[in-house]
Amino acid sequence: MVRFSTITDEEWQNRVDLAACYHLADYFNMSDIIWNHITSKTSSQKDTFLINKFGLRYDEITASNLLEIDLDGNIINGEGEINQTGYVIHGAIHKNRKDIHCVMHTHSRAGLAVSCFKDGLKPMIQDTAIFYNRVSYHEWEG
């Protein structure tokens, strides 16, 4: 159970915003049932972040059922399991990029299509120029 007595106004707002982000991603067909994740810093005062409880669809996520985890993957606040892949991806980013507030890992149909290209996203038309030198790739590891 989330210990609401310890939650600051800033953390509660981040929880509400993150839950809304999950719902927007679902609305825009950027969810993949339970297999992706969005995280947010818990607050500017903590070295923890918020992540969805593993097994919940995006439309089931609320500010109250988000889990607070530390940079080592330990659940600090909340009950449930985390997606280990989500922790590995997001934990590394939150640990090394303190300037980043939110990290999204989605499986949009367009993103899946681009990931099938051997050379990734090529800036072949003006609309893709916004992504030039701003996309990172991680090789499939099985």
State the gist of this model.
This protein is of the alpha+beta class and about 140 residues long.
* Name of the CATH architecture: 3-Layer(aba) Sandwich
Contiguous runs where pLDDT drops below 50 for at least 5 residues: none
SSE pattern, N- to C-terminal = HEEEEHEH
- Main sheet summary: 5 strands, antiparallel
* SS-derived structural category: alpha+beta
Instruction: Classify the helix fraction into a percent range.
Output: 25-40%
Task: Give the domain tally.
Answer: 1
Explain what the structure shows.
One of its GO terms (molecular function) is actin filament binding. This is Class II aldolase/adducin N-terminal domain-containing protein. With 142 residues, this protein is of the alpha+beta class. It has one domain (4-131): 3-Layer(aba) Sandwich (L-fuculose-1-phosphate Aldolase), CATH 3.40.225.10. The chain contains 3 helices and 5 strands, in the order αββββαβα. The chain has helices at 9-27, 84-96, 109-115; strands spanning 37-41, 48-51, 67-70, 75-77, 102-105. Strands 4-3-2-1-5 form a 5-stranded antiparallel sheet, with helices on both faces. The protein is globular and about 50 Å long. The chain starts with 8 loop residues before the first helix and ends in a 27-residue tail after the last helix.
